[in-house]
Amino acid sequence: MQIVKCYLLAWGIVDSENNNSWTWFFQKLQQITDDIDELVFIFDRAPSIGFSNVYLNAYHGHCIWHLQTNLKSKFPSIDIVPLFRATAEAYSLAKFEINMQALCSLHEKTRG
To answer: Mind telling me which InterPro entries this protein's record contains (predicted)?
Structure first.
């Protein structure tokens, strides 16, 4: 069984949250971490984040909280967040697929 661990590795103080600041941050972080396929960073989808400039092999996962916030604003008339969370936090592939199908079905209903 593979053990997965999450750690807050580092933080930095910069003049503003922009591409240059994020590139600087990831360059500093890269000095203490290897750029490997198994390395995963989770943050929002902001295009200003200079992650891909520094880590060519690591994976960028999207933050569930940011995604659900986007869903709330895009689909304000339906209560999609609980189903989204259940899908994102599913502990088995079977449960994920069931929830994903329900999400797709809900999306089709909203499209008319």
So the answer is: MULE_transposase_dom
